[in-house]
Amino acid sequence: MLAYIIRRLLLIVPTLLGIMIINFAVIQAAPGGPVEQVIAQLTGVGGGATERVTQGGGELTVQSESGGTYRGAQGLDPAFIAELEKRFGFDRPLHERFLMMMGSYLTLDFGNSFFRDRSVIDLIADKMPVSISLGLWTTLIVYLISIPLGIAKAVRDGSHFDVWTSAAIIVGYAIPSFLFAVFLLVVFAGGSYLTWFPLRGLTSENWAELAWPDRILDYLWHITLPVLAMVVGGFATLTMLTKNSFLDQIRQQYVVTARAKGLTENRILYGHVFRNAMLLVIAGFPSAFIGVLFTGSVLIEVIFSLDGLGLLGFEAALRRDYPVMFGTLFIFSLLGLILNLVGDLMYTVVDPRIDFEARRA
């Protein structure tokens, strides 16, 4: 097992490098980079406005000329554009920029945001609690619903319960989470009907002044609707996976043998079938969590005004904030690869008979 873990850890290095190379090339080739973003702002803003750009501790401030119009409206000075490219690091060749970036990442230096004047690590640390809250609660609730429901559907395969629950699952899966989120806001958050839940944020403004029990209740009060919106369409796949896994195991020969020996159905189901059927379901928990955490919460964060990682990444992509884009990509890709390894190791926890070191003769 130790040799397998070492091989997987070593494989993370070229995999992560390939991810970074492909994304770096694609993003650099896309039009509308940070230099173009600043130029567009300069040529479109008048009236004494000030544009400030920060990079690596340096600062470039551009003040509009008297008369309320930037010179960029008639064409920017080439020297200014060259200085702007230097501030952003675009005065170096593409491969040199990539090597410098990866060298900084090896020392855990992810740089500063182009437009926020803060380090990437500080931005991630500020946004992480919101996304972890959404991802963790959503994943746990989905598993708590899907596993018992999938087992019940497998045991009652073909019954009216199985048919009606399948219909409900299909309906829930077909409803986009963001559309259901809007529905929840309109109905339960003061949109047109009830005001049972808050409209925005993860906590109330006076959260720091509350006692700890009240803080917990306030937090749960705020997160109920966002988590509910993400859960509705999230349990369909897992429920059907659980059902099919149990059906496959129930039809195996060892179940017939156990019944012939006189074992009760509960003993057969939870003492023998459960461990084999739950391999795929339980081992997939890390990847399910990472998927919910980084891909499923962007629109939910926007709708409920939750300042999390999804919103951070969306804004960074719009503004071409390369340090935030590449820094978060590196961190989350590394985290995803590690969690995939954890998911594989969970197979051996659920079923000790699995041996990754086994080789065919």
Task: Indicate the topology.
Blueprint: H1 2-29, H2 34-44, E1 50-55, E2 58-63, H3 78-88, H4 94-106, H5 120-155, H6 160-174, H7 177-188, H8 212-232, H9 236-250, H10 253-260, H11 265-277, H12 279-283, H13 285-295, H14 298-303, H15 309-319, H16 322-350
Antiparallel strand pairs: 1-2
Helix pairs in contact: 1-16, 5-8, 5-9, 5-13, 5-16, 7-8, 9-11, 13-16, 15-16
Structural features, described:
This protein has 361 residues and is mainly alpha-helical. The protein is 68% helix and 3% strand. It contains 16 helices and 2 strands. It has a two-stranded antiparallel sheet with strand order 1-2. A hairpin with a 2-residue loop joins strand 1 (50-55) and strand 2. It is globular, with a radius of gyration of 26 Å. 26% of the residues are buried. Mean pLDDT is 78; it is low at 45-74.
Features of this protein?
361 residues; mainly alpha; 2 strands
Order of helices and strands: HHEEHHHHHHHHHHHHHH
The parts where pLDDT drops under 50 for at least 5 residues are: 45-74
Question: What is the overall silhouette?
Answer: globular
Number of helix segments?
16
The helix content, as a percent range, equals: 55-70%
